Amino acid sequence: MSTTSAYKLDNFESFYNIIDNELVPTAKTRRAVDPSNEELLAEVPVSTQQDVDRAVAAAQAAFPSWRDLSQDERAVYLTTFVDAIDAHQQEFAQLLGKEAGKPPQGVGIELYLLSHQIHETLKFRLTEEQIEDTDERRIVQRYIPIGVGVGIVPWNFPMLLGIIKLVSALLTGNTFIWKPSPYSPYTALKLGELGAKIFPKGVFNVLSGDEDLGPLLTAHPGVAKISFTGSVATGKKVMQACASTLKRVTLELGGNDAAIVMPDADLAMTVPKVATMAYFHSGQVCFCIKRVYVHEAIYDAFIAAIVEFVKSLKSGGPSDAEAVLGPIQNSMQYAKLLELYSQVSKQDLKVAYGGEAASSQSGSGFYLPPTVIDNPPEDSKLVVEEQFGPIVPILKWSDEEDVIRRANASSMGLGGSVWSKDIVAAERLTRRLEAGTVWVNAHFEVGPQAAFGGHKNSGIGVESGLDGLKGWCNAQVVWIKK
C-alpha cells in the first residue's frame, strides 16, 4: 500500500454518505448543533431506505473477497487507516470538539485512545483452538466472520466507540456500516471518506440520518449483526427488532456504577480519582461513577475533600484549553438533566456544592454546574436512575452487607469499584458486585487488551479484546477423522 500522504482529505467542511467508496449526497439534509454555543453546524445527509439498501448491497458484495484475505492482510489496511487518521489529527480534533462539545483535554484523550485502540487490537489474531487430537481424530474450533455488520454509535464518544466496533469487525473479516448519532455525525462521515481512499469498495460504509435510520438497519435482512452502544430503553428496541431475522447482537448499554469507599481508604489518593471518574466528560460516560458510597467514619472528610476538588474543575468549550468540564452534548439530554436538577428542591436534597440549574440563555451553550449531593435518600431519582450528567450523590454506609446490597440494587450492572488500602479485602468485595467490570482503587480503566460489557440491563456480549473479536464471528467446530 502507498504512503499516508496519498490519503489526504480535501476539506472538513462538506459531508456525504460513504457507500461503496463513493461520496453520496441525499435529497434531504439536516444540521447538528455545537453544544458549546448552540450554533448550527454543517449540513449532513439524511439517509432513506434506498441508501440503506445500497449500502447493505455494497457491503454484501465486498464480503467474500474481504473475508478471504488473511488477518495479516486485513491488518495492513487497518494500519494504513490509523496512520491516515493520525495524519489528520488536527482537523479531527477541531471537528470532534465542535460536534461533541469537548474541551481540548477531552478531545485529546479520545484521539489518543482511538489510535491506541487500533494499534493494540491489530496485534490480536483469532486462531483455531484445538479441542482434541488423538490417533483417531482431531477436533478444532475456529471463528469465521458473520457478514455485514452495523455499528450504531452514541454521541458521547463519536469516534472511539465506533472505531472499536469497526476495527473488530474488519479485522475478523466482516464488512461494516457505521451509523453515527444524529447529534454527532461529522467525524464518522470524515472517517468514512478517509476509509474510502484505503479499503476495497464496499468494505466500510457510513450512513448519516435521523432517528428512523437505526430501525431501517436493524430490520434489514441483509445485515448479519448489530453492535449497539446507547441507552437501555433503545437497546431493548434494537434487540426486539433484530429478533425477526435472528441477527447477532452486541448491546453495550447504560450504567449506574457504584464506588464503595472503605473506612481505611487513602483520601488524598481516592478523592481526586473518584471525582475525576464521576465528572469525566461532565458525567456523560456509561462507565462514570454514578453513586459514591462512603463509610460513615470518613464521610465528612470525604465530602469536604470532594467539594474542594470539584470547585477546581473549570467549565468551557472546544476553544478553552484549561477547561475540564464541557457542555451537555445535546438539547435532549440537557432537558432531561434540567428536570433531574429540579429534584433537588422538590425532594429537599442537601447540596454540598453546586445546585439547581437554570435553563441556558439562547446561544450560551448547554452548561450545567457540577454538583455534589450530600447523602440523598436511596430511593431518590438521582440514586435510582443513571443521571449521565455532572450531578453526583455521595451516600453514607456503615455495614458491609448493607452497602453491597445497595450497590447491587440497580437493574444495571456495567461497572463498580472498591477503594481501600487493604487490596485483598477490596478484591474480595469486588467479587460480590454484580457488574461486568470491577476495579480496586480505580474506575473506568479499560483498554484494547481486555473485553468490556455489562451484566443485567447493562447489555449483552462484550466489546474489545479477544472476546470482542470473537463476538464478530460464528464459532465453527470441525471434526476430522484420520
UniProtKB/TrEMBL annotation:
<comment type="similarity">
    <text>Belongs to the aldehyde dehydrogenase family.</text>
</comment>
<dbReference type="InterPro" id="IPR016163">
    <property type="entry name" value="Ald_DH_C"/>
</dbReference>
<dbReference type="InterPro" id="IPR044086">
    <property type="entry name" value="LUC3-like"/>
</dbReference>
<protein>
    <recommendedName>
        <fullName>aldehyde dehydrogenase (NAD(+))</fullName>
        <ecNumber>1.2.1.3</ecNumber>
    </recommendedName>
</protein>
<feature type="domain" description="Aldehyde dehydrogenase">
    <location>
        <begin position="28"/>
        <end position="478"/>
    </location>
</feature>
<keyword id="KW-0560">Oxidoreductase</keyword>
<dbReference type="InterPro" id="IPR015590">
    <property type="entry name" value="Aldehyde_DH_dom"/>
</dbReference>
<feature type="active site">
    <location>
        <position position="252"/>
    </location>
</feature>
<dbReference type="GO" id="GO:0004029">
    <property type="term" value="F:aldehyde dehydrogenase (NAD+) activity"/>
</dbReference>
<dbReference type="Pfam" id="PF00171">
    <property type="entry name" value="Aldedh"/>
</dbReference>
<dbReference type="InterPro" id="IPR016161">
    <property type="entry name" value="Ald_DH/histidinol_DH"/>
</dbReference>
<dbReference type="InterPro" id="IPR016162">
    <property type="entry name" value="Ald_DH_N"/>
</dbReference>
<dbReference type="InterPro" id="IPR029510">
    <property type="entry name" value="Ald_DH_CS_GLU"/>
</dbReference>
